[in-house]
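Work Package 3 (structural annotation) set out to generate three-dimensional models for the target panel prioritized at the project kickoff. During this period the team completed the workflow that converts sequence records into discrete structure tokens, so that structures can be stored uniformly alongside our sequence database. As a representative example, we reproduce one entry of 45 residues exactly as it appears in the project archive.
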Amino acid sequence: MLHLYDDRGLDIVSHDKNTLMPLYQELNEWILDYDSKRMDEMFLG
């Protein structure tokens, strides 16, 4: 699911993190500092 919330960004949601892993790896530099620790824990830890 893609949720464009305003001109600052969007959320991409899936029940399966393996579906999102390629996006996480390819677009990691786009993740906001605000979210980066949580995303790293989710995908790497």
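The CA atoms of residues 2 and 12 lie 5 Å apart.
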